[in-house]
Design brief:
Blueprint (H helix, E strand, L loop, with lengths): L5 E2 L33 E10 L3 E10 L8 E9 L7 H7 L1 E2 L3 E5 L3 H12 L14 E5 L14 H9 L18 E2 L2 E2 L2 E10 L2 E12 L4 E3 L2 E3 L17 E8 L5 H14 L13 E7 L18 H20 L4 E2 L5 E2 L4 H8 L1
Length: 352
Amino acid sequence: MPDPPLSSPSPEVPRRARELGLGVGEVTTGPHNTFTDVPGIRVGHTTLVDAPRVHSGVTAIVPDGVGPASPLPAGVFVGNGYGKLLGSTQLAELGALETPVLLTSTLSAFRVADALVGWMLEQPGTADARSLNPVVGECNDGLLSDIRSRPVHEKHVRSALETAHSGPVPEGCVGGGTGLTALGFKSGIGTSSRRLPLAGREVTLGVLVQANFGGTLRILGRAITPADVGLPTAAPVPDTGSCMIVTATDAPLDARQLTRLARRAVYALARVGAAYGHGSGDYGLAFGTRPLGTPAGPAVVPDDTLDPVFSALLDAVEEAVLNSLLTATTTTGPYGDTRHPLPAAPLLAVLG
């Protein structure tokens, strides 16, 4: 069976939450309000569409210089462990991220991990590597894509890694978000950032979500169903989705503190109505951009100064999920299932 064609990410749709007056919280965003506002972070997507059979892909989060000889402090939290976050046990044990973080479809996760290992072993500084811990998250896109075809291959992984860039991040039906649904709507990749003072310096916090979970959407405290905004109500399906939430920051935090961030990122899904269902793997991963063992730079901040960071993170996750719903596009899968994005005009009318 031939590979589905590569699909270039669509230009960013100018209907993100903040552009609709639905930005969350009072903390200032970074210049693009995206994950890459954190210095030294790049994001790349490979999007695979062969409608209606395949809607899938891979997303690469690439911190500058990360590798087995220059790991980054990191933490992970499992809200519900029905998922495949490859590499999570070593990440939790050592608090060290050795590779980029890749996000893809459930049955493609293992091939993606193998491709990531191959790519990493070719990078400068890895000639003596005898062990490597690839970190790959996944969501189940089997409703809107032929998941058993496992369409993501090594060349797609390498393309996402090698085209990763700073600046604005395409959202919605791109990369690992191409075939996803959440809260009854078409979803995908969403992102947001916050910039705030911490211990006498300005720090940036970036969030990227791969949204694919059940529940009833809540905005401004109000439940929003597809019927409320004029969309057909789809037949219920088992909650077999998942949500991967990746947080990056240049704040001087250690692995334990980053685990505290990862935990709160999963908690933040409750704000938008997540059901945390039996079949939904809900994971938070957070990493810092200062390599472990770096002698220079600011000292790790005290825990009792972190409340503003926690609050900013909750806001950023909520806004990132809204962005994933608003920037997606209507998609029909191989079995006739159709999911629609959250439509901006009817939503604003409902919210008054």
